[in-house]
Amino acid sequence: MSAKPILAVTGGTGFVGSHLLRVAREAGYEIRALTRGWRPPEPGIAWVEGALDQPASLAALCEGADAVVHIAGLINAASRAGFEAVNVGGTLAMVDAARAAGVRRFIHISSLAAREPDLSDYGWSKAKAERVVAASGLDWTILRPPAIYGPGDRETFELFKMARRGIVALPPKGRFSVLHVEDLCRLILALVDRRETWLRTYEPDDGRPEGWDHRHFARTLSRIFGKRAATVAMPKLVMQGAARLDRLVRRGNAKLTPDRVRYFCHPDWVVAAEARPPEAVWTPAIRTPTGLKDTASWYEAQGWLR
Questions:
Q1: What value does the mean pLDDT take over residues 195-222?
Q2: Tell me: the pLDDT tens digits for 225-251?
């Protein structure tokens, strides 16, 4: 690779991608980022207008790049076909574009959900996308992040809102891992030129050995707001009913879908210790209580928490 690697990034306008562009630019990387609509020029970022289903734009994105970082994907869809079209079809399109442009390094952002492909259509699509990457013949690395949080995230934001109000509705009893978005971005960049990480799948987290119990996490979050939040474990049947109601009210924009209910109700979303990235490559730098506090401060500063 050149002294100043050029990264071809998909999903650069999303939560993780926008943080990656900032961190990579600060680290001196040159960036090409895919965008569906026109965006004003930014120092260090060359925006490439297009989409995953537009091969010409993907060819332009990859031309002359040193590495592809594929982040783009759907976390919510109305059907398995919707997930497959973007998460699988989009990954295949990026693999084809990288091969055609001669870009060997391919970093694929998957999800811990891929570990349980029979549990949800989302997890099924992410697992199938991983198989596409593994069969690509490229110098790939797959990352399976757990729940990602940080400034700008709208998924975990709901938890912050509930914690501030003093009552947090939770899935049934279980444990999960978390990771601050900036730690994830640091890991992605650490992988770019590390040959020993080729053809490996990693599950990064905040370093907490057994993850977080749902109630403990909610109470840790509530203490940031000076509260002792009440926690309510929602039975699966209640969550399924809420998903049907959300579909009736918000139709295609529903956030709590039956697919997500199955995902949320799984009791073990803790990363596997043996699948963590090597310490010589990366270790998490942000303690979760600190990261949660900083994220809450960002939400408050932006007027999200009222």
A1: 96
A2: 998 888 877 766 766 676 666 566 665
pLDDT of 1 reads 47
| Confidence band for 2, pLDDT divided at 50, 70 and 90 | very low
Q: Map out the domains of the chain as residue ranges.
A: 6-149+177-209+270-285
CA atoms within 13 A on the CB side of 92: 11
Helices (H), 256-301: 258-264, 288-301
Neighbours of 182 (CB within 10 A): 19
- Which amino acid is residue 82, in one-letter code? G
Q: What share of the chain is helix, strand, coil (3-state, %, to 5)?
A: 45, 20, 40
Q: What is the pLDDT of residues 137-192, one digit of tens each?
A: 999 999 999 999 999 999 999 999 999 999 998 888 899 999 999 999 999 999 99
H or E stretch covering 19: helix 15-26
Mean pLDDT along residues 1-20:
89
One-letter identity of residue 41: P
Torsional sign, CA 163, 166, 169, 171? positive
Is residue 93 a contact partner of residue 108, using CB atoms and an 8 Å limit? no
Q: In angstroms, rounded to a whole number, what is the distance separating the alpha carbons of residues 3 and 21?
A: 18
**Class of the domain covering 6-149+177-209+270-285:** alpha beta
User: What is the Cα–Cα distance from 78 to 210, expressed in whole angstroms?
Assistant: 33
Q: One-letter amino acid identity for 39?
A: R
Which residue in the block uniquely carries the two structure tokens 């990387």? 29
The answer to whether the CB of 211 falls within 8 A of the CB of 176 is yes
Total Cβ atoms within 10 A of residue 164: 20
pTM of the entire structure? Answer: 0.93
Sheet holding 67-70, edge to edge: 45-49, 30-35, 6-10, 67-70, 105-109, 139-143, 200-202
